Amino acid sequence: MKIRNFLMFTILFIAIYVNAQNVMQSPDYIKALTTEWTGERFADGRPKVSDNLLERLKEITLEEAWAELIEKGYFNQFEGNWKLLKENDNTVMTGRAVTAQFMPSRTDLENQVIEQGKTEGRMWQQKRTVSWAMTTLVEGDFYVADGYDKQSYGTVVGSNLGNGVWARSHRGAIVYGHIRDTEDLRKVEGFNAWVKGTDPSYMRKTLLTSINAPIRIGEATVLPGDAVLAKKDGVIFIPAHLVEHIVLTGEVTELFDIFGQQRIKEGKYTAGTIDSKWSEDIKKDFRSWLNTYKGKLPMSRKELDSFLEKRNF
């Protein structure tokens, strides 16, 4: 019996160990990481946050998103102090995270990664592991790479890879590290990158070790399929199952502000009244105001009514 148990344990250990060596994480593993997501998924297991929500997410401020994440107990989803490839006051981009983990190179580990890459059908000639995560991108994906803030000989994005990211996803890149070929990258219309710096050296002392595993971007933890909200002042990584809540909360807050400011100007309520917990009369007034609102609601009226039923405002 002891021998049988030992053999079963050994087989299980080997199975787990072999699976753990995959460069591209399995769909089952990604599903296990994101169990709170109940919607559609990609073939690789990542949550498929809708294009509609990603577009609406652009209008949510970093403060609005951050406040709701903290309310839900997520304190490590923001990273600031970026250098943008293209500085623009209107810079904003959203997408679904594909994560790439890089580490300082080590010959024996690199050999194992290359061998595993062969079994996964990846381009392994000349040790071109840097492009492996990029080749998995689809429309709407955001390339998110942990380059451990390495400067020289660790530039994980150059002009070729940046062009590849844009061609596949029509989104940008977030690199906790440095990039190169910035003059050429700025010529790629629509592409942008959030980075910690630039350096002219090419990558030769850094190794890709995993795709779509949990990674650290500065002070933030990122899972594959997180919704990325990238703006000039920072980047927030939103768990997929919270995106709809955060978008709706931000949109309704904006409607509250429009209603409140209008009523203050009309002299119906004071600023202190609007900033306090609303009475039933104000709530009723707000619902009546919605029926005559001339602006375009960002959500459906059904979504809004359902949200208001649960909201303690």
Describe what this molecule looks like in 3D.
The chain is α/β, with parallel strands linked by helices and 313 residues long. The protein has two domains: 51-238, Ribonuclease E inhibitor RraA/RraA-like (Glucose Oxidase, domain 1), CATH 3.50.30.40; 244-310, no CATH class. The protein is built from eleven helices and eleven strands. It has helices at residues 2-20, 27-33, 51-57, 62-71, 107-119, 159-169, 182-185, 243-266, 271-275, 280-292, 301-310; strands at 78-79, 83-84, 92-104, 141-146, 173-179, 193-198, 206-211, 215-217, 220-222, 227-231, 234-238. Strands 1, 2, 3, 4, 5, 6, 7, 10 and 11 form a nine-stranded mixed beta sheet that branches. The chain has a two-stranded antiparallel ribbon with strand order 8-9. A hairpin with a 2-residue loop joins strand 10 (227-231) and strand 11. Helix 3 packs across helix 8 (243-266) and helix 4 packs across helix 8. The chain is elongated, with a radius of gyration of 23 Å.
CATH class term of the largest domain: Alpha Beta
Strand content: 15-25%
User: In terms of structural class, how would the helical and strand content be classed?
Assistant: alpha/beta
Query: What Rg is obtained from the alpha carbons, in whole angstroms?
Result: 23 Å
> So, CATH architecture of the largest domain?
3-Layer(bba) Sandwich
Number of strands: 11
Helix count, per DSSP? 11
Identify the overall geometry: elongated
Compute the number of structural domains. 2
- Output the helix-strand order: HHHHEEEHEHEHEEEEEEHHHH
CATH homologous superfamily grouping of the largest domain: Ribonuclease E inhibitor RraA/RraA-like
User: What's the helical proportion of residues?
Assistant: 25-40%
CATH topology of the largest domain: Glucose Oxidase, domain 1
Organism: Flavobacterium cupreum
Protein name: RraA family protein
Pfam families: RraA-like
Keywords: Magnesium, Metal-binding
